[in-house]
Design a protein that fits this description.
The chain is of the alpha/beta class. Strands 5-4-3-6-7 form a five-stranded mixed beta sheet, with helices on both faces. Strands 1-2 form a two-stranded antiparallel ribbon. About 11% of the residues have low confidence. Helices cover 42% and strands 16% of the residues.
């Protein structure tokens, strides 16, 4: 005996809804897993603190060693990245509010200098900006950004240890939580 379920029966709708929900959860779980930062490479710290990045438009190079001993929020971004552009004003406010307490925020552009200079003419920032270019992508990977996505942020404590990392756009709640962890 063959029993068929009418196409619009509640049982069929429940079955199709369950399959769709399971597929959605699996996709969301995979996306969450792929976007989780990996562990920071063992040699990333030494490599980071010895690096210098070109400044903008003839400004001096930015030496990472100058940030040792103070909390540092390192943000990898690009002018062509909408979430990067969206979070920059918030990062600039965070820097202005906390620099008297020793905080530093460095925006490392994984971009071309000319594009960054044009961008900053339209949206000036008070926080330091340097050009990481394509070597910045390699540094980001060493700091746990194996997916290579932007924006990517890493919080370092006063001893130069990575304490927090986030792939994707930062929010005020992230900054508030992070500011109490260094």
């Amino acid at each position: 005996m063959n029993v068929s379920v009418p196409p619009s029966s509640p049982s069929r709708r429940w079955l199709l809804g369950s399959v769709a929900a399971a597929a959605g959860l699996a996709g969301a779980g995979l996306a969450w897993w792929r976007l989780q930062p990996a562990e920071v490479a063992a040699d990333a710290g030494a490599g980071l603190w010895s690096q210098e990045f070109p400044g903008l438009a003839g400004q001096p190079a930015v030496a990472m060693r100058q940030f040792l001993g103070q909390p540092l929020l390192l943000n990898f971004w690009a002018t062509w990245c909408p979430p990067c552009v969206d979070e920059l004003p918030m990062l600039d406010r965070f820097y202005q509010e906390r620099r008297a307490q020793g905080w530093m925020v460095l925006a490392l552009a994984v971009d071309q200098e000319a594009a960054v200079v044009r961008f900053l003419q339209k949206m000036p920032l008070s926080l330091p900006v340097a050009i990481a270019g394509m070597p910045g992508a390699a540094l980001g990977k060493a700091l746990g950004n194996t997916a290579g996505g932007l924006p990517y942020s890493v919080l370092f404590d006063t001893k130069g240890m990575a304490r927090e990392r986030k792939m994707g756009q930062l929010h005020e709640s992230d900054l508030q939580a992070w500011s109490g962890r260094v």
